[in-house]
Amino acid sequence: MSDAKEMTLAEREASIGGIGTARKRKEDARFIRGKGNYVDDIKLPGMLHGDFVRSAYAHARIKSIDTAEALAVPGVLAVITAKDLEPLNLHWMPTLAGDVAAVLAHKKVHFQNQEVAFVVATDRYAAADGVQKVEVDYQELPPLIDPLKALAADAPIIRDDVADQDEVGQGKRHHPNHIFEWQVGDTQATDAAFAAAEVTVKADIDYPRCHPSPLETCGCVAAMDAVNGKLTVYGTFQAPHVIRTVVSMITSLEESSIRIVSPDIGGGFGNKVGAYPGYICAAAASIVTGHPVKWIESRIDNLTSTAFARDYHMTGELAATRDGRIQAVRVKVIADHGAFNTHAQPMKWPAGLFNIVTGSYDIPVGHVKVDGVYTNKAPGGVAYRCSFRVTEAAYLIERLVDILALETAVDKAEIRLRNFIRPEQFPYKSSLGWEYDSGDYPTALKQAMAAVDYAGLRQEQAAKRERGELMGIGVATFTEIVGAGPVRNCDIVGLGMFDSCEIRVHPTGSAIARLGTKSQGQGHETTFAQIIATELGLPSDNITVEEGDTDTAPYGLGTYGSRSTPVAGAAAARAARKIRAKAKKIAAHVLEVSEVDLEWQVDRFTVTGSDISMTMKDIAMAAYSNVPEGMEHGLETTDYYNPPNFTYPFGAYICVVDIDRFTGDVAVRRFYALDDCGTRINPMVIEGQIHGGLAEAYGIALGQEIVYDAMGNVQGASLMDYFLPSAVETPEWQTDFTVTPCPHHPIGAKGIGESPNVGGVPAFSNAIIDAFGHLGVTHMPMPHTQWRVWQTLNELGLNT
Amino acid sequence: MTPGVFEYHRPTSVAEAVALLARFGDDGKALAGGHSLIPMMKLRLAEPAHLIDINGIADLGGIRADGDDIVIGATTTLAAVLGSDLLRDRCPILPQAAAQIADPQVRNCGTIGGNCANGDPGNDCPAIMMALGARYLVLGASGTREVAARDFYHGVYATALADDELLTEVRIPAPAADTGMSYQKIKRKVGDFAIAAAAVTLTLADGACADAAVALTNVGDTPLMAPGAAAALKGTKVDQAAIAAAAAAAMATADPVHDLRGTVAYRTAMAGEMTRRAIAEALSRAGGA
Amino acid sequence: MATRKIALTVNGEAVAAEVEPRTLLIHFLREQLDLTGSHIGCETSHCGACTVDLNGKSVKSCTVFAVQADGGEVRTVEGLAAGADLHPLQEGFFQNHGLQCGYCTPGMLTSAWRLLQENPDPTDAEIRIGISGNLCRCTGYQNIVKAIRYAADKMNQA
What does the angle CA A469 – CA A475 – CA A476 come to, to the nearest 5 degrees? Predict the structure, then answer.
């Protein structure tokens, strides 16, 4: 029976460390001691190293590859080319988007730095020596770099391998460089609304190509155990089970003979979801050599060949009344996917969840058309905290609303208040097909405005404008869509996007949980334990959370798109509730009462109207010793959760900037971020996610771009040039929150990881452009580098 | 990424270092801070067969006054320059610049000698040394010579230093009384080379500019003296008109490349703006307006 | 590929080893001494994940050859804690959520350790400059600054 009546209710709750607690992180213990276990820390006996020979050209035929000198380099054991992989049919691999991608360039190269040969050596220095000595003879071909020219009749054809296919996994295409056309909405009604509108605005708005650049690059250690016929691959996998299934699909190995392990991952941000040639080549090399093979890419490799982000060329239009009420939205996008369509997102959505482009606004009608195209650039597009193209959508609508505000001479916050979806309209069906779960946008924006004294800031801005000083106020009120997703329309290579949690409670009242997700810094070992702790009434300190080993974790689709809390978090809550339901039966049996007489409170069942109770800790012991007749022993279960809908976190961000009119330097004076992610599991972790996402947004808005010249040479693809802000450039952040629970989620949580990037970029961009709003400037392209801002200053004669 | 194979030498005297440089010619490179050379080696853009590590040579370090000169040994780190009381008091443009070069860890290794001798137009010290009228002491197999900083830079990675020579110390003539100096650098972030930078020294006498020097960083193949800019200041009270003329002259001198740091127009304009700001600060430090 | 013998002190312990001249200090520490706490995040000496303390200074160990450390003293993140007792910096990062993925953390801790040796009571601005050679992609730096501030206060009270 239960003791510890001495603890008050508050003490009992505190000892649980459950939902809502700013619990310190479990994972920190190893990281602060330098005892993390990242893939490059792994050292296996006899391990070899692999490195790539990469293409010097963006578009070229391979005439020959001479490996003789490389093979003579001390320490080099093998040089693998497409020809060696061809008999295994591994020289090409299926992508997660229904296309195929080269593992090693076969007959031609499609982007600069594409993998051409894989050198295997005794150590990484010898591998680099070997790479230097491989001679590749190329015949250059004219490259296609400008996506806006991809569909021209005379455009160079990039993909010979699929040139005669009228589909590459995403429906009919109408040009060899065309990947897909995706449309949603009502063309006729939209065109009619525009024709009838009192006011229309239109803008060409590009979201430049950038790159998530997690601090740890991608890599793996592949170890084929020839004796037991089992392939183990340790690697930077945000979705280990998907990798296992894909590896099984492309090799002759059963999934039961493949073990994928994601150890600690040094940041993912969507860069580590898909399968890269390095993984396949390392595995093949391990099979061929009989040794473990490690592949760790360099930073330049990472920035030039792994999943980039964005590269959306958008034309957006709003139709509105004279007082700024939006009547329709119309969008056309050319999406530059690079040479292969590789990105990881629900496959039925080739433009991701871009049709959230209605944002936080009640827009009666709309139409979106996205055309994906190939270019001679690195493949990718969906990455970098984008929630599957939500960053692009939010950026577009937030810019268009600001442009409409200028056109109608309505204040930028006021115009948003006029157009917000009202709280009473939820659940809200948008004209582009989403059912938003819950939200209270006016409260959020008004709270943010009050906190920064928005009216005072506008007054200050007016006074400064009189003196020729440039101050900008950026407002971004975003709604985003995460938690992919309902299996009926969300799958990756046919795998439904459910997720899972398995919980086992031990006899003495601690527990272990395993999930199908994989943290890369989001703190799952801490936060999922909190969810389970609250449901089970066991201290989170005593709940071990494991992810990432496909031999032990239940099947899941991994962590990206802010889906872990909405999907696996729900599974965790539901699994814990199933256990609690069983525990109730056990308690009833032990206490010799009927279940209906038992009430649950914090950590125990109490017999209604008495002092008699039984803690979950004691029930755990009973589960192994004294269960009712007919009941199995043990206290464990697995839950696979198929979410009924996505979740819709939202926020109101306000950014204040001061611009040096001589240099184009942008000083961020203040950044205020109010987020609503529904139920808040760990306020400390949430705040950390916001800080980090805003820092990324700052980098994107102020300086990040992956640039190609006309010949397809990638410019500035090292940290010399790719702008990763240091602690000196990065602004300070103020965070705030409201709580609008998700009605369909077991604990009302929505997810938060990507919101700051979704809302942060438009907040920064809107602020900078707002500084010039009184001078007729409606848009300025990102990134807002000093030299670009100066161009505007110079054109307006402000720098004299 | 990893470097190619080389042989490593660690001479204990300057003479030994120079002898090794002479012996290996263009197969040998001196290793001081290594934070320009080693990154190049890791990318295999530089593959010297022999590295001659001069860090252990005591004679090559130190900051001291020597008569009318300030003398800085070649292996003096940028961190030491940043923290030097002597330089702060007598040649503050150097600690000011050091704070704008690289980051703390790189400054702990990067040296004055390396920054001056490397020949990358992005290095900051060269323009400053030119503005200061500094001289470099160079030691080779054939003996010692002095080269004026203003004569040292010929092109991208092309300097007056022969393969068998070592820059051993930098000699800065003591600035005259009522001299102010400033280094203004605009860059994208900490650690970046300059979009443009200007080094200005200004000497006042009777409320007017008796002497001035202006030199520009990273707006040409080499650091650039801007004699037109200095001429626009000499004899004037360094009023707004003189400053504007000097900035315009600096812009006319600048010949930047278009790269990810900015367009030619922008970088040229920044050469002017940094000149303007450096003059203003140098003036106030000289005791002027 | 001739090797050279080197002898140095790492985290207070004498180490004797043989290395190729071209072996970078970061690889020597990680692969020969199995001190995998210091990390590699780039190859152009920008990110600072490899920062260690060498002869009393923070350096990027990816830009130093192991042979250059011959006769020297190296301290890595593994040498910060005194046995089971965490250093106040480690405690500060834990209390203030100064880490997420943990990859930049060892370099940050080592830089911060030397910063506080040189400047025991830094302002927030000085802290930011002090860690400006250490990039982080997860935290946005704000909690790292708080963590270092926490440690400085704790050490100054002691």
Answer: 145
Share of residues in chain C with pLDDT > 70 (%): 99
Identify each DSSP E strand in A321-424 by its residue range: 326-336, 365-373, 380-381
pLDDT > 90: percent of chain A: 97
Question: Taking the C-alpha atoms of A94, A100, A105 and A107 in order, what is their torsion angle to the nearest 10 degrees?
Answer: 130
Q: pLDDT for A107-126, tens place per residue?
A: 999 999 999 999 999 999 99
One of A238, A327, A522, A530 is an active-site residue; which one?
A238
Nearest to A703 among B44, B103, B188 (CB): B188
User: Mean pLDDT over residues A389-403, rounded?
Assistant: 98
B185–A contact, CB cutoff 8 A: no
Q: Left (φ > 0), alpha (ψ -120 to 50) or beta: where does B121 sit?
A: alpha
Exposure on the CB side of residue A710, measured as CA atoms within 13 A:
0
CA pair distance A320, A751, nearest whole angstrom: 32
Contacts (Cβ under 8 Å, ≥6 apart) of B239:
none
Tell me what the mean pLDDT of segment A242-267 comes to.
96
d(CA A303, CA A719): 9
Nearest to A34 among C76, C100, C141 (CB): C76
What backbone torsions phi and psi does residue A730 show, to the nearest 5 degrees?
Answer: -65, 130
CA distance C81 to C93: 13
pLDDT value for A1: 45
**Residue A2, pLDDT score:** 47
Residue pair B216/B224 in contact by the 8 Å Cβ criterion: yes
Residue A662 near chain B (CB below 8 Å) = yes
What residues of B are in contact with residue C51 (Cβ under 8 Å)? 105
B269 interfaces chain A, CB cutoff of 8 Å: yes
Residue A522 a catalytic site member? no
Sequence-distant contacts of A452-459: CB under 8 A, at least 24 apart: A452/A654, A452/A656, A452/A670, A452/A672, A454/A413, A454/A654, A457/A656, A458/A411
Residue A577 designated active-site: no
SS3 content of chain B, % helix, strand, coil (to 5): 35, 25, 35
SS3 A638: strand
- pLDDT tier at B151, thresholds 50, 70, 90: very high
Closest C-alpha to A283, from A262, A260, A307: A260
- pLDDT of B281: 98
Residues 417-436 of A with CB under 8 A from C: none
- Whether the pLDDT of residue A18 is over 80: the answer is yes
Can you tell me the distance from the alpha carbon of A566 to that of A547, in angstroms, rounded to the nearest whole number?
A: 16
At residue C74's C-alpha, the angle toward residues C68 and C78, to 5°, is 140
- What is the crossing angle of helices A755-770 and A390-408, to 10°? 30
Shortest alpha-carbon distance between residue B67 and chain A (Å): 40
CA pair distance B59, B74, nearest whole angstrom: 9
Nearest to A531 by CA among A685, A746, A743, A739: A746
Residue A204 scores a pLDDT above 60: yes
Q: How far apart are CA A643 and CA A635, in angstroms?
A: 25
Q: Locate the chain C residue with the closest alpha carbon to A688.
A: C139
Beta-carbon separation of A786 and B195 below 8 A? yes
Contact status, residue A270 vs residue A23, Cβ threshold 8 Å: no
* Residues from chain C contacting residue A29 (CB–CB below 8 Å): 94
Q: A660-672 burial by CB neighbour count: b if 16+ within 10 A, else e?
A: bbbbbebebbbbb
Contacting B residues, span 166-185, partner chain C, CB-CB under 8 Å: none
Mean pLDDT confidence for A649-655? 98
Q: How do beta strands A76-80 and A115-121 pair?
A: antiparallel
Closest residue of B to C132, CA-based? B103
From A173, A385, A563, A661, the catalytic residue: A385
Chain A contact set for C42 (CB, 8 A): 298-299, 718-719
